[in-house]
Structures are given as C-alpha cells and as structure tokens.
Amino acid sequence: MAIASTNPATGETIREFDALSDSEVEEKLATAARVAREYRHTGFDERAAGLRRAADILDADTDTLAATMTAEMGKTIAAAKAEIGKCAKGLRYYADAAPAMLADDIADADAVNASRALHRFQPLGVILAVMPWNFPLWQVIRFAGPGLMAGNVGLLKHASNVPQTALYLEELFRRAGLPEGVFQTLLISSGQIEDILKDPRVAAATLTGSEGAGRAVGETAGAQLKKVVLELGGSDPFVVLPSADLPAAAKTATTARCQNNGQSCIAAKRFIVHTDVYDEFAELFVAEMAAQKVGDPTADDTDIGPLATEQGRTDVTDLVDDAVAKGAKVLTGGTVPDGPGWFYPPTVISEITTEMDIYGEEVFGPVASLYRATDIDDALRIANDTDFGLGSNVWTTDDAEIERCIDELEAGQVFVNGMTTSYPEISFGGIKNSGHGRELATFGIREFCNVKTVWVGPTGKNE
C-alpha cells in the first residue's frame, strides 16, 4: 500500500509520502538506541511533565487534529474530537499513576532468608509499535503513555493510510519537550517491519491489527526471543437475556456496532438474543440502526461516515452478499449506496448459519449479525463459538446470570449492561485469536518492563 492520505468520503488523494530509505531507517534506529540508554535514567517527574505538556497540546490542537483524522480515515468529526480528549486524559492518567504502578514491589524478606527482597520494574529499551488506522491517535497513545513513563523509547510504524496523524505524533512529543528521538515515526512499508524487529537494538514490539499481521510479527519476534503484545481482531458477542432493559440494550447495541463507522475490534458484532425477547429486541434494534444518519463525516449531525478504504468496503460487501446468497435475511441496509466515497449503510442480518463466511469472520463495518438463542446455555454456546476472544457484552438484571456470564464467556473482557470500551484505569486485551498480553492499567505499563528480582543477603550489621 502506498503511504498516502486519501479522503474516504471522496476517494481523492490528499497527499503522498515517500517511504524512508534503508539509511534513513538506520539513522532512526541509531538515534533510538542512543536515546534509550539516556532516557532510562530520567526520573518520573521529568517524564510526567512531558506527558502533561503533550496532553495540553492535544487540547489546544483539537480542532485541526480532528479535521486531519477525519480527512485521513473518515471517522466523524465528533468521534475524532472525542478520541483526542481520551488521549489527553490517558496521558495525564499515566503521568499521575505510573510512579505507584512501577514502585518497588516489596517481597517477604524473612521468607527467602534475605535482609531485603523486592521486584524492581525497569524499561526494556526500544519498543517497536505497529499500529492501525481505525483509532489513529488513541491506539498509539495507549502504548506511548505507559511506555514513555516506564522509561522506554518508541518507534512507530503506523498504518500507511494515516501518515499525517503518524507524523503529528512524533512532533507532539517533541513539542512537549521530551528528549529528541524518544518517540519517532517510521514512514515505511509493512515489508520493512521484519528487518527492524530483527535488529538487536529493538527490544520488543506491540501490534494492534489483523490476525494475519499479528501472526507475522509474532513469528518474527518469537524467532528473536523478543517480547510482543498482540491486540488483534474480535467478533464480540452482545448477549441479551429476558430480564434486560430492551430499549436501553437496543440503543447501546446500535452504538456498540456503529462506533467508528463500525470499524472497531471491540465493536459488538454478533447479537445473541434469548428467544423470549428476540422479536421485541429485533424490532427495536432494527429501528435504531435504520435511524442512523450516514453522510459527510465533517458534519456535526452525522452518525456514520465512510469506511476507511475501498478494499474495506469490498470486504464488508462480500461477506453480506455471501450470507444473503446462502439464505440470510437482511432486516435493514445491505446495499452499497450510489455516489462517491466508501460508504456502507448500517445493516442487520438474521438467519445466519455456519456455512456462511460471516459466521466465523470479523466484519469491519456497520453490519450486525442477529442470532436467536433458546436459553442461556444456547446463548453462551453461540457466543463462544468463535476463534476470537477480545470483548463481550451481556444484558441481564439477574445476578446469577451475570456471574455465570462473567465466568463462562471466553473473552479478555466482559461488560455487563453496557458496551465494551477501553479505559486507562482497566486492562485491555484478548485471548484465542484475538492476541495476548495486555494494554492499559498496571498490567499494560508492566508489559514492557524487566521485572527484576532483587535479593539482598545479610550485610553483617546488627547480626
């Protein structure tokens, strides 16, 4: 893929960029390695001050940066502004919370025959971040915030269709007064990732993206014995049981499916409804989905903008068309609109069978698959019948059902009577083909730390 900003609402190319040459990549690597040796010795106060200044800059740049994000990948202007605000909050959160998260973990010295025993959290060094286009700012910040507070240095390989946002991120940390080279953007092709990850100056990697990309990066990292965190795709279930508040569930389900124009790994995608309330929920849900306004992503009243790429829309269309050809029923949407841009309408389909591609594949667009479950056992069976395990949602007011779903849903996250989202304060990640490792919270900041065990024997004093 060419490194270019292309407006998905019009199909017009805004600006093209040249990939870095091998010598330019080498210069970036050398800088990162040098800075990593120095930056690890900075204190939390200095790091935190830089993150707080970066948050202030994001606040000040909100309007222009949101316009850039919308132009590059089509998210609505309201969603872009909300994402920027979330990033500023995340930076301030880690600036405040990181010192306690990375304080020495004191162990029982007597139990191990020591005068002192503890775990110390120290940075690994240069971390390669391979990031996607769908949340072009937040995906990066949720790595960069904890990573920089831990004393690591970042190299960003962003998606090729959001180069302006990628370059802004490097400039953001420079403007915030962090050391030159502590966070660098690499405008490179995906084919250049392997050699960079193999470079001994790169200590570890984190990737958010497709299952295929995760397998490729994971294989390379494994061969080099390097740590890697993978956040891959999802086909999240949204389970609705008889005691649920159905109007609230239907409204939330629509937001959960259509957020970011339907292009989110943690968007609810499979809506599994108990037969006793299936018809009522389906009527409410279809009405909510059909009412979503599709159009110009720069307009304040637009609910759903275009898909980010032409190929992305083709992939969504192919999955829906395959399902319909094999007997699925379209309850709303399902037809590509006329006109420029890569728009796709909010769509609900039902009567899905295992022979349809959509049953097992992630749909990266505003398409909801509706399933009827005979009881809670059947609902859990359908929910878990997927190779993915990122997020999950359940709607019920029955305490026993809540506990059972928390225990039995096979996912990295369970949200009850709400939609799956990410917060700096709680961990984020999945199981099965959705990846491994965790981002955010204490778990996330420690992923790229050396958890160093310290044992100090008797000193001879006062013995």
TrEMBL record:
GO molecular function, one term: succinate-semialdehyde dehydrogenase (NAD+) activity
Superkingdom of the source species: Bacteria
Pfam families: Aldedh
The UniProt record lists the keyword NADP: yes
Alphabetical GO biological process terms: tricarboxylic acid cycle
UniProt keywords, alphabetically: NADP, Oxidoreductase, Tricarboxylic acid cycle
Chain ranges of the Aldehyde dehydrogenase domain: 3-454
Assigned protein family: Belongs to the aldehyde dehydrogenase family.
Protein name: NADP-dependent succinic semialdehyde dehydrogenase
The organism of origin for this protein: Williamsia herbipolensis
